[in-house]
């Protein structure tokens, strides 16, 4: 094998990202939808980290059928079809670009239909990127509430439950706004289990949660007293019935919504596993999604990998592949992300072990508030940290993993990938002579 173990891990991880190419997945999913579509009769709305490529995939499939549309993504969009207006939203926190984009979407959906079709493309990050607070709540209030929940370790379901009740588009309200017009939607899932009511805060599907649930989430995470007064007063008023709740199952606004998932984390995991097999590894795929506190999940993943080596023997190359999304409860003052913390915990668990390499990557190319996608560590990472006068354990406890893993040379940077289906994690175990 000519590549280093770390390079092999990197290439396997990148294969997982290639397997969820949004442009290809979107075009393929629309291949059977083009019959009978006339010139300039389809409005396309794309929201999320994969919005640009999903819009291009729609254009590939529909060609001159696209009349125009709106893109809201975190990156500057180029090469979009004629008539498509792009907005640069904020992630992980909303910004005014995303709010302006949300207003443009609302305006488009409220236009007289005149026989046009509407295609809505949703991918991970949509919940933050398209934000339209109700009257009386500012964008800054939503940001402050979201930040408090994230720092308290809220998972995506908890976070989006609250977001749905502080927005005019989320939680099925976008479908309500469309007034019963037919909507086709394709979703690239970034949530474990692909729940359509959670992905992007479910703008086109029924919402089972209530204002009471949102209040309970904030109290459960211990941040009810920390959110802006405008937020707590609005939620309490909603719980009293002063504000209309999100539309529930059976609401007629969903009668003409056709929605389906075109890609997810399982597809990325399959892509990584396939590349590992192509490279001669005996592969085991973890069926249960990886979740929970990142540092705990990283240590558990290593234990699973070492158990695999004990079971299969160390005479051949082994690869453990998993995927999902962990959380980080921020208690320190450093900079890091869930994949960096996962990798740091893994590095501590394999300290001094030869032939073991662990990689964890965010498929969107960005791990939390960092410029890293993740990291690839091995049995020498701890020694390299000590040589650099760094303490990985201290860095992990201070949520400061980016600085330490940068010093060891283990940080993986890819730049924005244009997709987002949570994280992929792998461990390779090679005999010393491999």
Secondary-structure map with pairings?
Elements: H1 5-18, H2 22-29, E1 42-47, H3 51-62, E2 66-73, E3 84-88, H4 96-110, E4 117-123, H5 126-129, H6 139-151, H7 156-164, H8 173-177, E5 183-188, H9 211-220, H10 229-240, E6 257-263, H11 265-278, E7 282-285, H12 294-312, E8 318-324, H13 338-349, E9 356-362, E10 374-378, H14 381-387, H15 392-397, H16 401-408, E11 411-412, E12 423-429
Parallel strand pairs: 1-2, 1-4, 2-3, 4-5, 5-6, 7-8
Antiparallel strand pairs: 8-12, 9-10, 9-12, 10-11
Helix pairs in contact: 1-11, 2-3, 6-7, 7-9, 9-10, 12-13, 14-16
Walk me through what this model shows:
- The chain is an alpha/beta fold and 434 residues long.
- It has two domains: 21-132 and 167-209 and 246-263, Rossmann fold, CATH 3.40.50.10180; 266-429, MOFRL domain (glycerate kinase, domain 1, 3-Layer(aba) Sandwich).
- The chain is built from 16 helices and twelve strands.
- It has helices at 5-18, 22-29, 51-62, 96-110, 126-129, 139-151, 156-164, 173-177, 211-220, 229-240, 265-278, 294-312, 338-349, 381-387, 392-397, 401-408, and strands at 42-47, 66-73, 84-88, 117-123, 183-188, 257-263, 282-285, 318-324, 356-362, 374-378, 411-412, 423-429.
- The protein has a six-stranded parallel beta sheet with strand order 3-2-1-4-5-6, with helices on both faces. It has a six-stranded mixed beta sheet with strand order 7-8-12-9-10-11, sandwiched between helices.
- The radius of gyration is 22 Å and the shape is globular.
- It starts with a helix and ends in a 5-residue tail after the last strand.
- 55% of the residues are buried.
């Amino acid at each position: 094998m000519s590549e280093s173990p770390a390079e092999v891990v990197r290439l396997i991880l990148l294969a997982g990202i290639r397997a969820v190419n949004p442009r290809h997945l979107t075009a393929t999913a629309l291949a059977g939808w083009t019959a009978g579509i006339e010139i300039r009769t389809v409005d396309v709305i794309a929201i999320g980290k994969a919005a640009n490529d999903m819009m291009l995939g729609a254009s590939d499939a529909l060609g001159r059928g696209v009349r125009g549309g709106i893109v809201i993504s975190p990156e500057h969009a180029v090469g979009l079809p004629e008539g498509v207006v792009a907005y640069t939203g904020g992630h992980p926190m909303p910004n005014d670009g995303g709010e302006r984009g949300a207003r443009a979407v609302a305006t488009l959906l409220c236009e007289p239909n005149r026989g046009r079709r509407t295609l809505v493309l949703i991918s991970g990050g949509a919940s933050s990127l398209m934000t339209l607070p109700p009257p009386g709540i500012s964008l800054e209030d939503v940001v402050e509430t979201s930040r408090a929940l994230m720092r308290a370790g809220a998972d995506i379901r908890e976070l989006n439950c609250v977001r749905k009740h502080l927005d005019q588009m989320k939680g099925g309200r976008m479908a309500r706004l469309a007034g019963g017009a037919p909507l086709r939607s394709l979703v690239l899932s970034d949530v474990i289990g692909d729940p359509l009511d959670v992905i992007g805060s479910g703008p086109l599907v029924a919402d089972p949660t209530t204002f009471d649930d949102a209040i309970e989430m904030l109290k459960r995470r211990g941040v009810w007293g920390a959110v802006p007064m405008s937020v707590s007063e609005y939620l309490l008023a909603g719980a009293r019935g002063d504000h209309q709740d999100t539309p529930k199952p059976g609401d007629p606004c969903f009668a003409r919504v056709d929605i389906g998932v075109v890609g997810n984390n399982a597809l990325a995991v399959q892509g990584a596993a396939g590349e590992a097999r192509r490279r001669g590894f005996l592969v085991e795929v973890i069926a249960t999604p990886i979740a929970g506190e990142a540092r705990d999940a990283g240590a558990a993943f290593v234990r699973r990998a070492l158990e695999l080596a004990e079971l299969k023997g160390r005479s051949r190359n082994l690869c453990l592949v998993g995927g999902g999304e962990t959380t980080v409860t921020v208690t320190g003052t450093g900079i890091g992300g869930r994949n960096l913390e996962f990798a740091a915990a893994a590095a501590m668990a394999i300290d001094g072990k030869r032939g073991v390499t662990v990689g964890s990557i965010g498929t969107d190319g960005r791990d939390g508030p960092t410029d890293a996608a993740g990291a690839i560590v091995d049995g020498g990472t701890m020694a390299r940290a000590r040589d650099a006068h760094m303490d990985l354990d201290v860095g992990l406890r201070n949520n400061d993993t980016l600085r330490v893993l940068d010093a060891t040379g283990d940080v993986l940077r890819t730049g924005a990938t244009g997709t987002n289906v949570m994280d992929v994690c792998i461990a390779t175990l090679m005999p010393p002579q491999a």
